[in-house]
Amino acid sequence: KEIVVSGIRSTGFLHLGNYFGAIRNYIRMQEDFNCYFFVADWHSLTTHPDPKDLRGNVLRVLAENIASGLDPEKVALYAQSDIPEIAELYLLLNMLAYKGELEKVPTFKDKVRLSPQNVNAGLLTYPVLMSADIMIQRAVKVPVGKDQEQHLEMTRNYAQRFNNRYGYLFPEPVAFNFGDNLVRIPSLDGSGKMSKSENEMATLYLADEDDMIRKKIMKAKTDSGPAAPDAPRPESIVNLFQLMSLVSAPDTLQFFETAYDNQSIRYGDMKKQLAEDMVNFIAPIRNKARDLQQNPGYLNRIMRDGAAKARENAAQTLQQARKLIGINYY
Ligand code: TYM
What we know:
Organism: Chitinophaga defluvii
Function: Catalyzes the attachment of tryptophan to tRNA(Trp).
Distance between the termini: 34 Å
Oligomer: single chain
Catalytic activity: tRNA(Trp) + L-tryptophan + ATP = L-tryptophyl-tRNA(Trp) + AMP + diphosphate + H(+)
Radius of gyration: 21 Å
CATH superfamily of the largest domain: HUPs
Structural class: mainly alpha
Bound molecules: ligand 1
CATH architecture of the largest domain: 3-Layer(aba) Sandwich
CATH class of the largest domain: Alpha Beta
Mean pLDDT: 95
CATH topology of the largest domain: Rossmann fold
Shape: globular
GO molecular function: tryptophan-tRNA ligase activity
Strand content: 5-15%
Protein name: Tryptophan--tRNA ligase
Largest sheet: 3 strands, parallel
Number of domains: 2
Helix content: 40-55%
């Protein structure tokens, strides 16, 4: 079985972007691949979260993954910080990562722009740690959303540099999505992608209550209707149709597509329908995640078992990496 790795930062409530960019792929891959899925709690430390929040944040991400359909019997589910081998590989990979290259990464430049008062080295070397997460398991496929594409390119660079210098150890992993293209779920306000923090009213969380889901969708940006039969669709409308294609029945989607084409569409009706379909999609995940969080003992057990499995494979990789580099003295 091919090895698959992916992670989600424990920085807030999971949203529809996390689901359709990442988790949906996890679920589809869990049968046929050897899967390692983790909560990236070290990565969450770049913004110095309150220590008393960490445990709850990690358990919630875990619960939301399981509630979405991940089966802990089939995949290893763990916390990144339970795998010290990742930290050692990260140190080793830092010697192959160049400062200039890291400074050019768009996600880093965004962070510098948004919080210039906290440009720490952890932020700069974020892609190196992410590469270590992936390479420690010698993964070949990494299910992620579009925003992670560039990070994967860097991972391939580090794998290549290591292999060229020390001998072959690491496959070159690719960002993966079922279907051709990596997914990018747009924000409801028509500006950019859906994200954990930026604008809560424009983000649909897997933990949102039914009325909140309805409220957010009814407020989503639209325009005044198709200007001409073959005018290009404005981005906000493309976005609504994209969301509908993910959670509504095919004939519902078709109905509104046709209505759009013959200019009889009423966005209010479309949003009402989308809201109901979204409620039906999110509510069971939300309720299951809530139940799971009532049982931290169960979640802890899953995390421990997952970590044991992940460490076993990680230790083998690390041992070989040390040996190839020459750190094998005894
Ligand atoms: P994070 O925590 O920001 O997001 C988790 C996953 O959700 C995807 N995603 C989206 N996909 C589509 N549309 C969106 N609007 C959207 N928003 C988020 C992300 O692409 C990601 O797949 N660096 C990673 C975490 C990480 C990781 C790794 C991933 C750490 N180590 C190793 C894979 C392998 C991150 O910040 O994801």
